[in-house]
Amino acid sequence: MNVSFINELWFVLFSIVLIFVFVREREYIFIYYTIWTFTLETIFFALLVLKKEHIAKQIFPIVYSPAVVVFVGFWVIIAPSAKSRAITNIVFTLVTHGLNAFALILQPYKIAMADLWRPVCWTLVYNIFLAMYVGSGGRSISGALPYWYAQYNNALGWVFAGLSVSAVAIVHIFSSTKPKKKIEECEIV
């Protein structure tokens, strides 16, 4: 299959899911890190479809590590702890907490260590937003906290904020490629 066609399929799928969840949850959907990251991933694939690869390559290092962290964090920490709440939309959950990370992992782009600041800043800005949002009384569409750990009046919220920033940095570091050493030719006499 053609890589361009596959990227078009990712873009169509991600756009449909994003529109669906926006219609369902309205502006409240943008209180979630998953959706912040998923929206940027959708923009990334839109740019690829529009043949704006040079801009898409600037977004890739921002979104790659957060997508992996969302995938692992959701399936290892959040989903198992939500035993009392069943997944209400399996398509939404699988696309935003799995297929999106898979789509990015398949991309041919390299991640440079020098770009570490990009996903770290992205995650830090989100955590500051979430603390301000929750601290000012903001809740989800159902009236609950956006995440069970978003309790910034005690250490739990700040611990998770620190863990998310650290996890993104670690994934980026382990995913980055080292620049190739330049080998100079010299003549041996």
Could you describe the 3D structure shown?
- 66% of the residues lie in helices and 0% in strands.
- The chain has 189 residues and is an all-alpha fold.
What value does the Rg take, in angstroms?
Answer: 19 Å
Q: How much helical structure, as a percent, in the residues?
A: 55-70%
Kindly name the structural category: mainly alpha
Give me the count of strands: 0
Q: In whole angstroms, how far apart are the ends? A: 52 Å
Overall body shape: globular
**What's the assembly state of these chains?**
single chain
The major β-sheet equals: none
Number of helices: 6
What's the number of domains?
A: 1
Mean pLDDT: 87
One letter per element, helices H and strands E, the order comes to HHHHHH
Low-confidence regions: none
Q: How large is the share of residues in beta strands? A: under 5%
Produce the secondary structure layout:
Elements lengths: L2 H23 L7 H17 L3 H29 L8 H16 L11 H19 L19 H21 L14
Features:
globular, 189 residues, mainly alpha, 6 helices
In a nutshell, what does this entry contain?
The chain is mostly helical.
